[in-house]
Design goal:
About 30% of the residues lie in helices and about 25% in strands. The chain has two domains: about 170 residues, 3-Layer(aba) Sandwich (Peroxisomal Thiolase, Chain A, domain 1), CATH 3.40.47; about 160 residues, Thiolase/Chalcone synthase (Peroxisomal Thiolase, Chain A, domain 1). The mean pLDDT is about 95. The protein is an alpha/beta fold. The chain has eleven helices and 13 strands. The strands form four sheets. Strands 1-7-6-4-5 form a five-stranded mixed sheet, sandwiched between helices. Strands 8-13-12-11 form a four-stranded mixed sheet, with helices on both faces.
Length: about 325
């Protein structure tokens, strides 16, 4: 029986126009450009400005551009999955709202929350729907308005995050392209080190929780850093070993853009040279679900059909994972 795979056939990113620089942050908190760059590698990040704009607005723009670029009609899409930790509202799902905004009417849609690993979890989930033969065209979105949950009086977190969205089109194929293998992991004991203290069912919103600034990201930076360096590097190496891939076989490593030192550690563990690592953290910061799509979008023209790509991420939860992807097209075929 011929194996069906989920091939990535289009990619599109979107970042809002306003740019928050390190120099601006120097006026807001006790920090410097040198301090931020040496610890994170981030120089600027995009921030969504405007009353009433949410994650779905950025995501809808990415999806509209993706559909136009790939010549895909909205009614052809059968499933939409949005990886986000900053939904427009608790319910309905942001994926539902995005679908409505772009005219996707013949699909079901849902959100996935796995923090910074959410995009990988969503890709693997989408690939299973396609591999079973249930669906032929699926859109996966990674989008976050991190500025909405960032405390701009906290030096430890406000320098890290930005806003952006990315959309990926996956289609059924019988060729040897697309999602080839994946390894996903979670460790719920990590919740105490990276979370939002209030706003859920344990601690619903109240005047007290707002006054205590408990609706922002809380992170114990050193602990998270140590876990991330080990887990993301190990799982990227593990998927290579599992599939007999050597560093020379890899066209690119696409790591989650959380911290330049974590990215460097992952590349070293894989034995991949820096010229094979997609890095744009300097210009976007950590956009959570959008970091990997933004990289693929920016490097799209350099990618060739059949290129071996390793996607790797680590996020709150703790969650982490790696995906081996064979690139499914040459960029000229989509007008990208």
């Amino acid at each position: 029986m011929t194996k069906i795979r989920a091939a990535l056939t289009g990619i599109q990113g979107y970042a809002p126009p306003y740019i928050l620089t390190n120099q601006e942050l120097e006026k807001m908190v006790d920090t410097t450009d040198e301090w931020i760059m040496s610890r994170t590698g981030i120089k600027e990040r995009h921030i969504q400005k405007g009353e009433g704009l949410g994650t779905s607005d950025m995501a809808a723009e990415a999806v509209r551009l993706l559909l136009e670029k790939t010549g895909t009609a909205p009614e052809e899409i059968e499933l939409v999955i949005c990886a986000t930790v900053t939904p427009d509202m608790m319910f309905p799902a942001t994926a539902n709202i995005i679908s409505d905004k772009v005219g996707i009417k013949n699909a079901f849609s849902f959100d996935m929350n796995a923090a910074c690993s959410g995009l990988l979890f969503a890709i693997v989930t989408a690939s299973k729907f396609i591999e079973t033969g249930a669906y032929k065209k699926v859109i996966v979105i990674g989008a976050d308005k991190m500025s909405s949950i960032t405390d701009y009086s906290s030096r430890e977190t406000c320098v890290l995050f930005g806003d952006a969205a990315g959309a990926l089109l996956f289609e059924a194929t019988t060729e040897e392209f697309g999602v080839m293998d994946s390894i996903l992991r979670t460790d719920g004991s990590g919740k105490e080190f990276l979370h939002m203290k209030a706003g859920g069912s344990i601690k619903p919103p109240s005047h007290d929780t707002v006054d205590a600034r408990e609706h922002y990201i809380y992170q114990e930076g050193q602990t998270v850093f140590k876990f991330a360096v080990t887990k993301m590097a190990d799982i990227a190496a593990e998927i290579m070993e599992k599939n007999g891939l050597k560093s020379d076989d890899i066209a690119y490593l696409v790591p989650h853009q959380a911290n330049l030192r974590i990215i460097d550690a992952t590349a070293r563990r894989m034995g991949v040279s820096k010229d094979k690592v997609m890095i744009n953290i300097e210009r976007y910061g950590n956009t959570t679900g959008a970091t990997i799509p933004l990289c693929l979008w920016e490097w799209e023209k350099q990618l060739k059909k059949g290129d071996n790509i390793i996607l790797a991420a680590f996020g709150g939860g703790f969650t982490w994972g790696a995906v081996w992807l064979k690139w499914g097209y040459n960029s000229s075929s989509t007008g990208g």
